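Suppose a classmate hands you a notebook page containing two proteins, each written out with its sequence and a corresponding row of structure tokens. How would you begin to make sense of it? This section walks through that situation. The first entry is reproduced here exactly as it would appear on such a page.
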Amino acid sequence: MDAIVNRLAEIESAAAAIVKHAEEEKDELEQEMRRKQTKFDEELKAVTEQRLTEVSKQAESQVSAEKEQLKKNHESKILQLKKEYEQRGEQYAREILERISGV
């Protein structure tokens, strides 16, 4: 009978050791998963910030180029209007005067 009790005590002790070992492995795996999750989050954040910086620079460059093109277009139009005024300014003034006076 003592042999059976001793054997059951050994089995219970072995089972407790197995459970303890399993819990320790579980804790280690949880810590490893947290480390991997943290590393992944940091890498994702870095990649996202880098991409946002690239997109922002690209957008700024595009806006700057469009502004420059608009400026050139406006300057060209202003020069064209000034040239037309120099060539036909007196004619326009006479036409306006004729319309006002009805002559």
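The notebook's second entry, a different protein, reads as follows.
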Amino acid sequence: MSPDSKKPLLVLFVCTANKLRSPTAEDVFKDYPGIQAVSAGTDASAPRPLTKELVASADWIFAMETHHRERIRKKYKQRPPDNRIITLHIPDEYERGDPELVALLKEKVEPRIQDSAVQ
């Protein structure tokens, strides 16, 4: 839960097209207690494009690659602090739901959010 309210922690996952990596992350974390997982893409034609409202409302942002993080930092003034915008270093080489991708996401994201989410 976010520290200032009883609402779930909003965790935003970002990739380019919002078709493979970030939707997989949303699928993995959507049922975690105290977490509201959402995904978006930096590409304007993504099924869910990244918006200033999404960025501003996020408690944590997990960017799949460095260029996603830098775009968020440069384009959006209202955003979580830099220490809550994390680059996962997951390249665009996985299919949606790939077990290896799921394992990487759990390994890299769980330690960051488990202490923040109230169960």
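A careful reader of the second entry would note: The longest strand covers residues 9-15.
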